Amino acid sequence: MPDARPRYPHRHLLGIEGLSPLDIEALLDAAEEAVEVSRRVEKKKSTLRGRTQINLFFEPSTRTQASFELAGKRLGADVMNMAVASSSVKKGETLVDTAATLNAMHPDIIVVRHHSAGAVHLLARKVDCAVVNAGDGAHEHPTQALLDALTIRCNKGRIQGLTVAICGDILHSRVARSNMILLAALGAKVRLVAPSTLLPVGIEALGFPCFSDLRRGIAGADIVMMLRLQRERMHGSFVPSVKEYFRYHGLDAEKLSHAAPDALVMHPGPMNRGVEIASDVADGAQSLIREQVEMGVAVRMAVLEALASHLPNG
Amino acid sequence: MTSLVLQDAHLVDPERLREGRGSVLVENGVIADVAWGAAPPAPEGARVIACEGRVLAPGLIDMRAFVGEPGAEHRETLATASEAAAAGGVTTVVTMPDTDPAVDEPAIVDYMLRRARDTAVVRVLPAAALTKGREGKEMTEFGLLGEAGAVAFTDGARCVTNARVMRRALLYARDVGALVMNHCEDPDLVGDGVMNEGELSARLGLLGIPKEAETIVLERDVRLARLAGSRLHAPMLSCPDSLEIARRAKDAGIGLSCGVSINSLTFNENDIGGYRTFFKLSPPLRGEDDRQALIEALVEGTIDVIVSDHDPQDVETKRLPFAEAANGALGLETLLAAGLRLVHADRISLPALVAAMTSRPAEILGLEQGRLSRGAPADLILFDPDEPWVLDKAELRSRSKNSPFDEARMEGRVHLTLVAGRVAYSA
Fold it and tell me: For residues B302 and B300, what is the distance between their CA atoms, to the nearest angstrom?
């Protein structure tokens, strides 16, 4: 029987921007099935058997890299992790040279994280295989947005019409950028909440209401999505101190009471407890934070499978 | 006596904003006569070049070009830059002092001039550093550097941020008649910014550079120039707020002159598209409204000169993620053709465009060239303003290949470049 579901039509996954709502739904549907696979005792599939997946991380990451590794292995791929701290990039080799070197090894999929916006696009232009963006600078982190959407869909049954407040360091956040594009594409009402120093100038032009007051920003929201605040932001005159940030922009039980009574709390991790989120909220009944991690593996399996279907002999 | 007649050209006289049929007689490297209308008989024994209606204009004077010599010869030498200039119709290049070592001592000016004499096919006029080591702290020897041949004082791509240093430099420059050019871009306000601040930077996840990084420095410099009673040249304006400051200063009688980069007249931030580093520039490319305002300011005269902002960069500095790549684009070889786009789009007349690259910079720098007048040096270019061509970076004469016009369709091509009556380039 022919598969009636819409198929993900792109060779790479570089960002949420450029994907249609149908593309996104296709990935989410596939991910939902992968959740089932991950909950079985026998978690292995063979869709990627014989395929080589390279995880190329120019920035340290524990959870995203582990999640991609597990996803690849559950699909039967040979997974190689390349941590760049120990590689030749530190010796002055450019990103493009690294891409050419890896390309010569004929991988099927490269998963890339890089500290510069656009770096993954640059790399994708220089290799023949499929490329997954695992985070590029402050630009995009598409699989995070997909797993957040899947988490919301599983808990709320829909995304259309929900009010989602994305709160915190939006200026430096690729998670925020991918999420706002994806959630808006699927019909959510997205709000951005941050001190003005951590909101990109020009973001209003994208059409999202912006708030600098957390209580007002999350008032009546169905989903409160908190972002990580890098501690080095204290030195750049973005915010005066951790103490002040937590007081005005950290999510605690009192502030959360302004959201909808059945509001759910999310965080892409790793969390700074007592900076952007209070421990009791992070571990509380409204928190989806642990479920997000589970969805992460499923979403990455779905993405890898979708890209593999475009590979030669796929 | 060697004579050369350029016959039946379409002459462009930038000083008088006049154009029309005519001929030019060159004797001993100097324009001996300019005859409008039908060609007078050529003097006996003169070499005659039939121009067949092509445009004959003074050679261009580019007030802002970076050259890698000394210190970064792998990117560009005086020889390669001058060949690119000649092919693009630029006969005088003002070089920036951002070399290694910086051009902050008379001996280095002397070195530049000797190297140029021995290797360059066009005129090279070094601008010296405004402060020692381009560090923004202590002023250089304006008098001695000027005597050695420096035509202006600037820290090139760096902005002098200390207002006291700037004030004293402007005061002292007035005494010795030196021209000060300060790059208007506050590095603290630029911070980690890499492109124009706005919707596009928010979308691309790149940190933005506010226009205030430029306007605050320009406003400060204008006020300091007024305080010092000195001249000031703002090398490259990029936004309407700066134009407003410039208009006000000029109306108030402050000796301000202003430039604009050909890139700011030709491109806008959307050209960055998918993180194309050849469009990473300082000042950054701004929006289309800003570009339109710059064109209007050029036409009305608030902007005096157009510069190439020629800045050769190689693979090592450009084939990188956008935020990590160096600023800068090639410009000498494409300056005229890019400028002609404005003429073809009916935004500016041909003489007015040419004036912004010849007689206006000549006035500001106090040069004799850049004019189509009897007695002026015979730095002349002959070009077909309509000839179509496609830029192939393999054919560029620069040692670096970072042209934002790679594979672009151009209209207008130089056929002959004369420097002091001698052929510097011939197609």
Answer: 6
The pLDDT tens digits of the residues spanning A90-143 come to: 555 778 888 899 999 999 999 999 999 999 999 999 999 999 999 999 999 999
Q: What is the reported pTM?
A: 0.93
DSSP codes of every residue in A209-248: -EES-HHHHHTT-SEEEE----GGGGGGTSSS-HHHHHHH
Here the ipTM equals 0.89
| Mean confidence (pLDDT) of chain B | 97
DSSP designation for B179? P
Q: How many angstroms separate the CA of residue B210 from the nearest CA in chain A?
A: 9
d(CA B25, CA B290): 42
Within an 8 Å CB–CB cutoff, is residue B188 touching chain A?
no
Token pair in block for residue A191: 């709000």
Nearest alpha carbon to residue B361 among B66, B131, B65, B106: B65
| Residues in a beta bridge with B350 | none
A122 in contact with chain B, both atoms CB, cutoff 8 A: yes
Cα→Cα distances B194→A124, A152, B197, B212, Å: 22, 35, 9, 14
Distance of CA A87 to the CA centre of its chain: 25
Nearest to B154 by CA among B243, B221, B254, B91: B221
Q: Read off the pLDDT of residues A157-182 as tens digits, 9 standing for 90 and up.
A: 999 999 999 999 999 999 999 999 99
Would you tell me the crossing angle of helices B288-300 and B240-251 to the nearest 10 degrees?
A: 20
| Interchain proximity A203–B202, CB inside 8 Å | yes
pLDDT digits (tens, 9 = 90+) for B271-318: 999 899 999 999 999 999 999 999 999 999 999 999 999 999 998 899
Q: Which of B198, B210, B321 sits opposite A95 (nearest CB)?
A: B321
Cβ A17–B319 below 8 Å, yes or no?
no
